[in-house]
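Ex. 9. Protein: Na+/H+-dicarboxylate symporter.
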Amino acid sequence: MSTLASLGAFIGLYWATAAAFVVVVLGAVLRLVGLTIFKLLRYIKEENPQRLRHVLVRGSQHPL
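Predicted structure tokens for Na+/H+-dicarboxylate symporter:
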């Protein structure tokens, strides 16, 4: 059971680190260009969903 607790803690730390990166680093870069994270999310939401899905699916299928 301690192995599962360690794994859970590791996964939690990973997601916390990823969230901190998005908020701090991406937020700082967006601020430099005059945007906010919320404006970026609004833009992504308004983008054509089929086109966005196509980009996400095709971008993840690169041959090794």
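Check your answer against this statement. The two ends are 36 Å apart (CA to CA).
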